[in-house]
Amino acid sequence: MLSKNQLKYIQSLHQKKYRQHHGAFLVEGAKSVQEVLQSNFQTELVVATEAFYKENVHLTDRQRTAVEIVSEAELTRAGTLESNNAALAVVRTKENRPLLAQPDEIALVLDDIRDPGNLGTILRIADWYGVRKILCSETTADVYNPKVISASKGSFTRVNWWYGNVVQVLSQLAGTLPVYGAFLDGADVHTLPFKKSGYLVMGNESNGIGPDLARYITQPVTIPRYGEAESLNVGIATAVLLDNIRRTTA
Amino acid sequence: MLSKNQLKYIQSLHQKKYRQHHGAFLVEGAKSVQEVLQSNFQTELVVATEAFYKENVHLTDRQRTAVEIVSEAELTRAGTLESNNAALAVVRTKENRPLLAQPDEIALVLDDIRDPGNLGTILRIADWYGVRKILCSETTADVYNPKVISASKGSFTRVNWWYGNVVQVLSQLAGTLPVYGAFLDGADVHTLPFKKSGYLVMGNESNGIGPDLARYITQPVTIPRYGEAESLNVGIATAVLLDNIRRTTA
Questions:
Q1: DSSP string over A141-169
Q2: Taking CA atoms, what residue in B is nearest to A188?
Q3: Nearest alpha-carbon partner for A245 in A209, A214, A200
Q4: What are the DSSP E strand ranges found in B124-202?
Q5: How near does any CA of chain A get to the CA of B222, in Å?
Q6: How far is it, in rounded angstroms, from Cα A87 to Cα A72?
Q7: Which domains does chain B have, with CATH numbers?
Q8: ipTM of the complex model
Q9: How much is the pLDDT for A250?
């Protein structure tokens, strides 16, 4: 059972300001909790139903993680999911370390991606396509938002991110690596020969890539359209672009 | 202002059984209502704020559509969106007519896609890639669900669908057209030469393509993975597959 203070602490992590204050975030649901316990994230506490605990005691024991056994109702009250019959974990956030694309590496740059569901989906897509580094503008949704963690389906444990001044980072590349960016009038990604190294910039859901960043795009790219939809969702576009990059450079 | 009966009728259309009973569904938000008024769907009634009505009176006049002017609060109460400051439309559903892929045409087959958001996204992707026909298993989410209509971002006006026994349809093709289906161990879509005509089958979010349908897949296909994510969301996978089909056959 959770103490009043534990419950209050866990519920405070629903909000960004308390996640930042405490340096901790929530991971919810059976699969995500199992994944985080097997990752290099440091777990403070697992709150679990008895059934989940019994099945996963080898994972919590290995890390000597503190565990509280609770009812489904208590678990659901503590977390953000509509229902949770398994577990949640309180996990330490990581240090915000700068990331740069290395030779033979494609890194993602997110310019003001606002929707947590989109950000989580992008983490999952990055993980599928072997992209390990995501540079996020400070206005991008908080990666530790429970909706992002949940939508990433465990991929948050395998992808690294940095939040900061992405315009500055790209301005300092000075043409050393290509910077691809999705625009309406760029090169056709079905015929463009992509390089093995560089950055792929994805812009805001409504406004695309901002003008400050657009200056540093060395290669605008476009997904050809065969019908009439006005646009593709940013997660969908990220997947199609990475698929095109991988197929021409792998 | 809406009468009690009008409000009750509109709210009943939140539910599938009443949509089926009345042969009508809801289209919500400025952009979607504008699109449906310019499509070949038959609109019974537009419920709009004064501001929306003034800006779009040319659209409602052209179709001689009945209009009710309401407050934002009244509009939001009638519909399903968290907030709506523009309009909703009550639109007649279409007859459920069988669809078959014609020469040089790719049609989509959806086997038990349960999530309305996924279905709406798939409509939008189909529209982007010029796919005009979607055959849905009877267990697939209702395309007239307001969440589907909303997630399709207007693409529901340009894509046709049929709900029925998709197993039977595919069983009767007898090898005349290829039937592509996404599996974990299919042909690599980066190297497979796709045909210009055929069916692309997408399966349930958790279980993939069911065994009854799997028998009729003539070409299993797989999106190559470069990282460690277990899977891609079905909407993402649909986009990547259609992108690969279009680039090799266009």
A1: PPTTSHHHHHHTTTGGGT-EEEEE-HHHH
A2: B247
A3: A200
A4: 133-137, 160-164, 179-188, 198-202
A5: 12
A6: 9
A7: 4-92 (3.30.1330.30), 106-249 (3.40.1280.10)
A8: 0.94
A9: 56
